[in-house]
Amino acid sequence: MSDIVALRKAQPRIREFALIRTLARRFARRTTQLIRGIGDDAAVLASPTQGWWHVTTDLLAEGIHFDMRTASLESVGYRAAMVNLSDIAAMGAVPRYVLISLAMPSNFGTRQTIQLYTGLMKACRPRHVILIGGDTSASKAGLFVSLTILGTTKSRRALFRHGARVGDDIYVTGTLGDSLAGLQLLARVPSTRPSRRVFSPLRASHKNFLINRHLHPAARLAEGQWLNNTRLATAAIDLSDGLSGDLRHLCEESRVGAEIELNTLPISAACRGYAKSRHMDAALIALRGGEDYELLFSAAPMKRASIARHARARGFHVTRIGTIRPRRFGMQMNTPDGTLKPIPNMSYEHFC
């Protein structure tokens, strides 16, 4: 690929340029705006007229973002792509191109690389995202996967975190907490209240649903583009670190506070079943759970009927969960018993 670093002797089974040719042959595609892709020191793109480019990148590290004991290489690749596609979705943009960089351990060969790329492109190809380059290196500390995705919108037409206004409604797409429940199932996290009595065993169908939601999340690209193109949303962010933290990020950028209704959080039957089987509070799982890659957005209350009508027509699952408040109000939640409490920040943070 573009400007590829020679692999170390620790990976004798990989021949650098043979691998490049194999990846280019199997995964690269052409578009009219792609002047030159894999094969030179840099890709060359023709810029669309009167448009904005959106660029996002994410690094996934083995042992931090994924565990090879519970995830296949294909699912690692798929999730890596969805992490970046979700950022593009939160901007209301259309994804166009992807660059993939890998740092591979000594036990990684061409077969493993192909498996990883297969998962990556299973996420990218249906969304018409074209592979245009990347980089490879050896690693002495596990597998590292870094993606950069480029997307486009019309000029001055994008969703940002800083546009929420006092009085706006707060919405989320999909359901919350599924990915965290799936991760805990894979990691075999024990019940919070161990008991000899089995209260409610988790259905196999619910278990499979939650694990799949963790291993194969779906970026809400169609929803993001709908909200952007119709200008229904005033601000948006994707839920990668968890509702309690990502709502805080949006409010900080918009200089506002928020009030959410805990009993309105959209929680799947599978997640509720999981919470019941582990003696956990499903609402707390929804607040804490990261990597759902749903969209959190704000919208003017006058748009409420329009959002409900258009979401229903398009088959989008959208739930109003609260209201934007003045900054001095802080971040608070209404509990089922009517008590107003601060929203705990339970989201994942690096370096903590």
Structure description:
The chain is an alpha+beta fold. The chain has two domains: 16-154, PurM-like, N-terminal domain (60s Ribosomal Protein L30, Chain: A); 169-342, Phosphoribosyl-aminoimidazole Synthetase, Chain A, domain 2. It is 33% helix and 23% strand. The strands form three sheets. The chain has a seven-stranded mixed β-sheet with strand order 8-10-7-11-9-12-13, sandwiched between helices. A four-stranded mixed β-sheet has the order 3-6-4-5, with helices on one face. Strand 12 and strand 13 form a beta hairpin. Helix 2 packs parallel to helix 3 and helix 2 packs parallel to helix 6 (221-229). It is globular and about 65 Å long.
Helix count equals: 10
Pattern of helices and strands: HEEEHEHEEEHHHEHEHHEHEEE
| The CATH H-level homologous superfamily of the largest domain | PurM-like C-terminal domain
Helix content: 25-40%
Descriptive keywords:
23% strand, 13 strands, 60s Ribosomal Protein L30, Chain: A, 352 residues, 7-stranded mixed sheet, alpha+beta, disordered N terminus
Quick summary of this structure?
This protein is of the alpha+beta class and 352 residues long.
Topology overview:
Blueprint: H1 16-27, E1 34-36, E2 44-45, E3 51-61, H2 73-90, E4 94-104, H3 110-124, E5 130-138, E6 144-154, E7 169-173, H4 178-187, H5 204-215, H6 221-229, E8 235-238, H7 243-254, E9 257-261, H8 269-277, H9 282-288, E10 295-299, H10 304-314, E11 318-325, E12 331-334, E13 340-342
Parallel strand pairs: 4-5, 9-12
Antiparallel strand pairs: 1-2, 3-6, 4-6, 7-10, 7-11, 8-10, 9-11, 12-13
